[in-house]
Amino acid sequence: MPVKEVILTVAGMQRLEEELEILKTQRRKDVAARIKQAIEFGDISENSEFEDAKNEQAFIEGRIITLEKMLRNARVIDDIDDKGVAAVGSTVLLKDMEGAVEEAYMIVGSAEADPMANKISNESPVGRAVLGQTKGALIEVAAPAGAIVYQILDIR
């Protein structure tokens, strides 16, 4: 099975590396201490503290594995081609042609996507439609309620 490349911005790479460091240094120690304390309470077969700590430990170890895999397969986007073409790392200003609403989105890899922070994945419908387009282009995005047409007002 081919390994999926993880596209990250420099800031996204730094955030993942920081999270991994915290998980490996602080969180592992904290949960180990919780497990030790729960064992001291006695019978672990009916000890909810022990179960909770073991579940947290499993989550932390799983997240560490996930982050290490993502970082191993990461391609960092730091040089954005400034020829006015939308790419991963670009911020695009879109205008909804029906509602005339303007919204700026940064196009990022799926690992960094956060729609609430206006960071959309290059794999999302809008992200895919915008990639490779230039300022002034009209793009059409399929949505459950029907197609939405956007105009690209600016690319930074």
Question: What would you say this structure looks like, in words?
Answer:
This protein is an alpha/beta fold. Helix 1 runs antiparallel to helix 2. The model has no long low-confidence stretch (mean pLDDT 88). The two termini are 36 Å apart. Helices cover 40% and strands 23% of the residues. Strand 3 and strand 4 form a beta hairpin. The protein has a five-stranded mixed beta sheet. Strands 1-2 form a two-stranded parallel ribbon. It folds into two domains: 72 residues, Transcription elongation factor, GreA/GreB, N-terminal domain (Helix Hairpins, Orthogonal Bundle), CATH 1.10.287.180; 65 residues, Transcription elongation factor, GreA/GreB, C-terminal domain (Chitinase A, domain 3), CATH 3.10.50.30.
Properties at a glance:
Helix Hairpins, alpha/beta, 3 helices, 156 residues, Chitinase A, domain 3, two-stranded parallel ribbon, five-stranded mixed β-sheet, single chain
The main sheet orders its strands as 5-4-3-7-6
Largest β sheet strand count, sense and barrel closure:
5 strands, mixed
Number of strands: 7
The total number of structural domains is: 2
Q: Rg to the nearest angstrom?
A: 22 Å
Looking at the structure, what is the overall shape?
Answer: elongated
Number of helices: 3
Which secondary-structure class do the elements indicate? alpha/beta
* CATH topology value of the largest domain: Helix Hairpins
Q: Secondary-structure element sequence?
A: EHHEEEEHEE
CATH class bucket of the largest domain: Mainly Alpha
Low-confidence stretches: none
What is the first-to-last residue Cα distance?
Answer: 36 Å
Looking at this structure, what is the CATH superfamily of the largest domain? Transcription elongation factor, GreA/GreB, N-terminal domain
CATH-level-2 architecture of the largest domain: Orthogonal Bundle
